[in-house]
Design a protein that fits this description.
Layout (H helix, E strand, L loop, with lengths): L3 E3 L2 H14 L3 E5 L8 H8 L6 E4 L2 H10 L7 E3 L16 H11 L7 E5 L8 H11 L5 E5 L6 H13 L6 E5 L4 H7 L2 E4 L9 H8 L4 E4 L4 H4 L6 E4 L4 H12 L3 H18 L2 H13 L8
Parallel strand pairs: 1-2, 2-3, 3-4, 5-6, 5-8, 6-7, 8-9, 9-10
């Protein structure tokens, strides 16, 4: 072993001890904002800033680390996440796959689709989206909450009750896990990220843009780094179902020409900034900064 690379806190403590005992360089990657309510939790979180190199996955997250921890800024690097653009390319998804996914979800042809790709977690803002759909007062569309509840049966029950209270049964669907997200994005007329707290990066919005979909995101954290405001995405305040409803209405009313132009720009934006190859190359470059860690 010539380099240790830790990506979450518990293994980072083991890796830090191993690095100290062996003299092997340690790299850490910070993927999100770690909340700390007391000194003990803050100490536990701080291990992610104790690598010989510390990688943040967004400029927003890097600034958070500089402000929160006693981190030497010379050790900090920003490497934004990358996606597999070979997988997330519209031309590589044949009609049979989208048809199969639509059939699996029971979608009738011709109805617009609003897609929220996220695990069923309170911070992902599914309830805000349901309220926004209710505000639209439309019966001719689908709203798909695509993601696993990961055992959060109580929260899933809350969402189902909210759907029923607004009379949105058959319109808002909680689909569960999806194994073909490329086809899911291609079915969508608009993709939403309604997160209510700032996250580390926001990969689903990058994937959606790679598939040429218009996206709506809450204006929190690093989202401004991953979209072209007003061109490939609409930004709305968090927790604001009225603003989200207005943005959805705008996206669903886009002309075919505007949709086509947006798709070209979105795909180009992702190809120029968020490929997996770029992410890997920049990570290897960090390894090479460490003496003896990685061959030229």
């Amino acid at each position: 072993v010539t380099v240790l690379h830790a990506r979450s806190r518990a293994p980072a403590w083991s890796a830090l001890l191993a690095a100290q005992l062996t003299g092997i360089p340690l790299v850490t990657t910070v993927h999100g904002v770690y909340h700390s309510g007391n000194a003990a939790k803050r100490l536990y979180n701080s291990v992610m800033t104790r690598g010989d190199r510390v990688i943040a996955i967004s400029e927003f997250l890097a600034e958070h680390l500089r402000e929160t921890y006693p981190l030497n800024p010379l050790r900090l690097r920003v490497i934004q996440r990358g996606i597999d653009v070979f997988r997330f390319t519209p031309e590589r998804v044949p009609p049979e796959r989208t048809a199969a996914q639509a059939s699996a979800w029971g979608l009738e042809p011709g109805r617009p689709v609003v897609l929220l790709p996220a695990r069923l977690s309170r911070i992902k803002g599914a309830a805000v989206l349901i309220e926004a759909i209710a505000r639209l007062e439309r019966r001719d569309l689908y709203c798909l909450l695509v993601g696993d509840d990961q055992g959060r049966q109580g929260y899933r029950g809350e969402l189902e009750a909210l759907i029923a209270r607004h009379g949105l049964g058959g319109i808002v669907k909680i689909t569960g896990h999806c194994s073909d997200m490329a086809a899911a994005y291609l079915l969508a007329d608009v993709v939403v990220s309604a997160s209510t707290v700032a996250e580390g990066f926001g990969r689903t919005i990058v994937e959606a843009q790679a598939m040429g979909r218009p996206v709506i995101v809450t204006d929190l954290g690093p989202v401004a780094e991953t979209v072209v405001r007003g061109e490939t995405a609409w930004l709305v305040p968090a927790h604001d179902s009225a603003a989200l409803a207005t943005a959805i209405r705008t996206c669903l009313a886009l002309s075919p020409e505007r949709q086509a132009a947006l798709a070209v720009q979105a795909i180009s934006h992702v190809a120029g900034h968020f490929t997996r190859e770029r992410m890997c190359a920049e990570t290897l470059a960090v390894y090479r900064e460490l003496p003896g860690a990685w061959p030229e």
